[in-house]
Design a protein that fits this description.
globular; mainly alpha
Amino acid sequence: MNLYDLFVKPYESYTDLQILLEISGTIFGILSVYFSIKKNIWVYPTGIISTLIYVYILFNFGLFGDCMINVYYTAMSIYGWILWSKNSKDHIHVDVSWATKKEWIFASFLFIISLVFVTIIYYYKPYIDNQFSMKGTSLGLYHLDWANWLDVVTTSIFLVGMWFMAKQRIENWIFWIVGDFICMPMMIFKGLGITSVQYLVFTIMAILGYVSWKKSFKEKSIIKS
């Protein structure tokens, strides 16, 4: 399989609207990560636009886990927007710090709950696909391919990462790095070549974000001492 088959051929069957939406979602997603690196509150309005676009895209491609995580992103973005506004002196930028032991315990709880919840959703996927009718439907996980199982895991990873970001914790970048890297082959497999490139960019930007936030915290600690 060559690059044409991976990144161009799938789009031959897409409508202009589908392609435009994916490109738009990618652009706003990259902008959101950029603002996050800069600890700029604009991470949230740009992120909300991107996540709402991807709710539509991922639902239509059967990636229910990622679809739901984007619904969660939208809600968490509103929460984070409010939280960052309250904790920002200039209402634009925020200070960052490392997570506490208590926050790590809660994050672990979020991860496990998400794994269980998304697996249950996939269990009922045949029922959902059959327009919420049990007629001729067999429930179970037999229909899941490797991309769907990765979707379950990445959903949980991103959920924790989003929560840590709203709390302005440096560790959020670790979850974004791992999740974004895993998503690249999953999106290629699902025929979303543009989105797979987006996740490559996200991975690189997340690494830069981790370095930037860690450096910012260290500099602030030196000033305080």
